[in-house]
Amino acid sequence: MKKELFSPRSFFLCAALVIAAAATGSARAELVYVTLQSSVVSFDISSGVGPTIAATKTTVASGLTEAMGLVFGGDGDLYVLNNTPGTVSRINVGTQAVTGFASGFTDPRGITYSSTGNAFYVANSGNPGSISLVTSSGTRSNYLTFGTNTSPYGLALDAAGAMYSANNASYSISKIVGGTPSTFTTFTPGQGVRGVAVAANGNVYSTGNFGLSVTNPEGTSTTNLVSSGLGFAFGVAFDSTGDILVADYVNQTINAYDTAGTLQYSFSTGAGTSNRPRYVAFDVPGSGFNQVVPEPSTCAMALAGIACGGYSMWRRRKRT
Q1: Residue 301 pLDDT > 70, yes or no?
Q2: Is residue 62 part of a domain?
Q3: Does 103 map to a domain?
């Protein structure tokens, strides 16, 4: 009797597993934290599918002044830049208590956190631009100073500890190793860069007047992923599925794209100029600039394939 490697029954079982696995790709169980003009808000995006979803908005902290970059520290608190007074506020997202953390910054825009040194880095976009190092106790010191007309905005760290700075005035991204900056990639003059995030595979995603772009780990090739539909792309971050969230300042939306630049979903941050989004983060240390995990759909599909193969082998041995 001929023994079947794949019987009709096992085929349909495998098909069901694959369909179920693919369906998990849209699952989201997290909060998105966004800076607006004078507040930090969160959006619950755990339900809803399609290009437009309904996100439940909650005010996390108010009374901020020109809120800019935000990042979660290793203690679970949220650290937010106040641009006009040049300070960092510390927010307990559970109690919503806001306290002063650090001061003395010049036109600060971006902030990131290093778990290795338990320290923060703040981009000062004044001329000349610079990056400050801030200890966990809030002590500030100068980390590096750029040349004139650089204006660093977003900051990101990769897995090896290298830092990337999105430079709005010089239309470039700098890669910083050991406190020494070098040009990683450049953009067309006039195409200011405001956000930067590093994926697990080393690709560097950036936002600016050009929309959303990706640069390979070597910095030798840059591809524009999204050039239309973004009014004024600001901050960028990864959600837990690997989608790329971009804050659209003009259209007052948060747009999520896959790594190919296809829109996955979007939601409004509210009406009026006070609701224009700047930067985005998730409840993960360092989130907002360099956190990404494999897409659940990818993992689930792999598990489905293993299950299919295992089931077929079991059926074959049973009939032997």
Answers
A1: no
A2: yes
A3: yes
